[in-house]
Amino acid sequence: MKLTAIFFDLDETLLDTSGCRPPAVEASFRVAAQKYPQLNLEAWRKASEEVKAEMHDLWLNSPNSGAELLREGSYRILKKLGIDDREFATHVSQAYYQAWVSHLKLFPEVREVLAALRGRFRLGVISNGPSDIQRYKLKLFDLEREFDPIVISGEVGVAKPDPAIFRRALELARVSPPEALYVGDSPVYDIVGAKGVGMQMVWVNRNSLPAKKLEVKPDGIVRDLWELLTLAESKKS
Ligand SMILES: [Mg+2]
Question: What is the fold of 5-17+105-236?
Fold first, then answer.
């Protein structure tokens, strides 16, 4: 079937977050260590990783804002290190987030590829995460106007790979699954999710992961979005 709509994942598909976490963890440590000089960076890093793992599911689909989740995360890190200071956790989380977003990048080809697709396909976003943070990322790169609809798990109460979030986006765009393509990097959230509702799916495999290991096969594999452009053109006619 002819392709009319393309939906994108955000993180690691359009946005490169790979350089965000290490400086953010260090920035939050620096703020925490000003008040609590007994803290050390290695223990802080370790506690941060533990809290990240503990809170993974909350980040996918929580009614809480990202700001609240970040505060809770900082509180838990402090707590693991023997400090019970909920009020101060707010400052720590703000330092973390400021550093995190300052290292956020758009993949280099994104603007040109979107410009080439614009007006030829309906373009949308389906993203897991809290509303405030995902919207902030889109605003930061002036991307909100590129996409309609923008469907975010924290807003709709259901997260990828649940079929319901994909169906919601398809309904809003008024397109049937086979005429829609989903573009994402995650084998589980993106490939399993999109194929589960019968959408076409292109896997963005920027890090050359072995495709053999995929449990559900995508319809195409690209190394970057330039390759997606070529592929979308071939499906248009
Ligand atoms: Mg992703």
Answer: Rossmann fold (3.40.50)
Check: CATH 3.10.450 for 21-102? no
Task: Using the structure block, give the residue that is written with the tokens 């979030």.
Answer: 165
Residue 233 CA to residue 210 CA, distance in Å, equals 26
CA of 194 to the centre of ligand 1 (A): 13
Look at residue 128 and give its three-state secondary structure. Answer: coil
Residues of the chain with CATH 1.10.150: 21-102
Average pLDDT over residues 105-118: 97
CA of 192 to the centre of ligand 1 (A): 13
Residue 237 confidence (pLDDT) = 61
Residue 9 Cα to ligand 1 midpoint, Å, equals 6
pTM of this structure: 0.95
pLDDT at 45: 98
Query: Residues 60, 79: contact at Cβ < 8 Å?
Result: no
